[in-house]
Amino acid sequence: MISFEPIDAATVPGWPYVYVVGSFDRRITFFSQQVRGFNLVHALAQNRVLGDRTRFAVVGAGAAGLASGSALSLLVPGAVVDVFEREQHPLHLQRDCDDRNLHPHIYEWPRAVARSLRAGLPFLDWTQGSASNVAADIMRQFGMLQAYQQNVTVNLMREVTQIERVGSAYRVHHRDSGGANGSALYHAVFLTIGFGRERALEGAPLRSYWSDAGVPQGPRYAHNVPRVLVTGGGDGGLIDLCAAALTDFDHTRLIELVTKWPEIHRLTDELLDIDAEADRDGPGFDYMHAYDRNIGPILRSDGLLEVIAERLRSRVQVVFNTEGPLVLEPYTSTLNRLLAFLLFRASELVEHPIQHMPGRISADGLPYGHYRVAGGEPFAVDDIFVRHGAAKDEAFGPFEAIRDAYKPEHERWLEADPVRRAPPSLEEEARSALERAMIAADLPVPRRQLQDAMAQQPRRAAIGREGPARVVWGGDVLPQSLLEWWEEPRRPLRLELLAGPDALEGLACAIGRFAIHARQVRVEADDPRWTNWFSRLTHQSPHAQAVQAPLMGPLTGAGCAMQEVNASQLAAEMHEAMDGWMLRKLDVHLSEYLTTGTEPENWVAWRIEPALRDAMRLRWNTWRERLRGNSPLLARLFRLAACAVEDGQGDQTDRQVLVGPHRLPSMVRTMVLTLASAEAWPVSAPRGTAPGNFERRDAGGREMARIHASGAELIEGESITARAAHHAWEAEIVLLSELNAPAFVEEAAERSLWHDDERAPRLDTSRGGKIIVGADAALMAALREGVEAMSHHLTRTEKRRQMEWVLQLEEREEGA
């Protein structure tokens, strides 16, 4: 037998075969309402509670209504389902809302399940995104069900006005938009009213949470400090508190900022412990005090508070009103509580605190725009956002007797077991039953499942040689499409190499570079030289660590039509396209990091003083435009950023293949280090000729130094820490993003001293004595302090290096 829990949760005492889905539950989210609908109908069907009943009325075409109607259609033999919706469209709250974000598992954060962006339902499935996109995706699937099953009807603009018991059945009375009345007899009724209408505050405008106009925007008033009031301590109020307090509010990006913060793992256990403590202590638990005690010290040291503080609106006074005495209330999500806590403490940090006004709010007898809290003195606001939750009791106006019978019993049921207050999950038996029913009904495979299946079918590209001079290409993937496997590969790729690396000449480097960095690519070749060739460029690379060779195997495909290509031209085009891809990705990451100081991927994780960061951003904008218009300059910059060897030294294949997605993090760090260093110098820019890939000039344009900026981890196969000081750098200044300790000269002086014709020892600046700047603790401190500290750090590094060489010269002379 299947568990009766979903049935017990929905059953109305004294009203057999009338079920209430989710209206008075905790944690009412779009996803949880779908799950409640699926679980309930499955439990009813599997436990044969419905018997031979086949005519069903579903009141409400929201998340729960569409899920319940779909499950009845699929799981109950002979079912005829009528869904009644008083609005013009199903999912009317979500269908036109672009600015609100829906995430199926956000209530589960910080648990691991919250990382999944997909609801994972067998039917009416969706992925995190705007409410309008989610609604459109679900309606496509529901429309498919209607077309194939033809036993589900959605009656729009039909408001159910009464449910009348007639023997063992129910007569559902309804009225259309023109006032015409109708009724029909049903064996069971599912009340899927869901959230209900939002509660209004008399004397205040009501802008629905699900309306884009209901999202707090920036100030629209002439005076200096407008006042914005957000009233309501539930999740809607907490989210709108964020929107009112933060510049350029983007809910999705705010979630990503906090949940992907580099140090957030230090908070997760503490947050879960606080939630457990709150459950034990019950009503009145002070979350703000608990957060100050448990996570406040971490937040004050990891930089997140400062980042939030930088994003606060400076010209808005935000007032937050809750009916109870506490800022944070139970039955809100952990993430939303954390966001509100961060806002309050960040606003105090910048001495522009958010004002908390506890107590019941009223506008009775006051002029428009004026309010009173807890009977206190009236105050005026420029804008107000009312988030007092759904008017659940009012939503049951036509069904008062059902509500009065159900609500107190359901409250007792919830309190009997704390687990029942948690967000529900789809029962595995329900999932399996729905999947089987969809197959039996011969429903088309849902688009997402079809995409998943198609994604498993590999595509094919073949490269070979015919005759002494004909390089040929075949398969269903053209060269210009290969970068899909650097971006978001939807299907595996078989890359068939029909000739050896020497036979393909320069094209081998381009093909190898693509394959080394691509995802879901299998290289197929019968020529054993390819294995050694890829090994030499990857795990045997003298320049970088952890570069993996692509998955390789023998040729498995049959022949295909081939056409001749110009190998040298194609190689040049492929390298240019890959360099362009790298520049775009570099720009996306740098723009985010230099604008906000944060980065979801945590590739840099250096805290940079805001003014210095802003100057770096402006400089990057200039460099980026120059690089976009000069392919050779861009290619050279990337090659030298990938390794410590100048272009003129040997075959450059081993460094050119390093420029790709696997090396993007180190190249981002290299560019950040270069931009920060450049702010300490009068003029600097990318350099197109040897040595180095950047140059430093004075205010008059005279060249002062050549700079080699590199993200190399190895030099000549040894760690950069061991080799940096001894390497024969050709540029005068060396910036090493992967060097996290000072570079010591040691015996390098022996190789860098020479004698002129008079036998006087001199410093050979072409071989040693370079200014080496790494990402050590001193640099980190300078970045945190700003431009002046950065300039001082570089000057001090240069003087220290000069002093080391002077001392070595003196010791050499004394020894002579």
Automatic annotation (TrEMBL):
Protein name, per record: ABC-three component system protein
Species assigned in the record: Phenylobacterium conjunctum
InterPro entries for this protein: ABC-3C_CTD2, FAD/NAD-bd_sf
Domain ABC-three component systems C-terminal: 470-794
Pfam families: CTD2
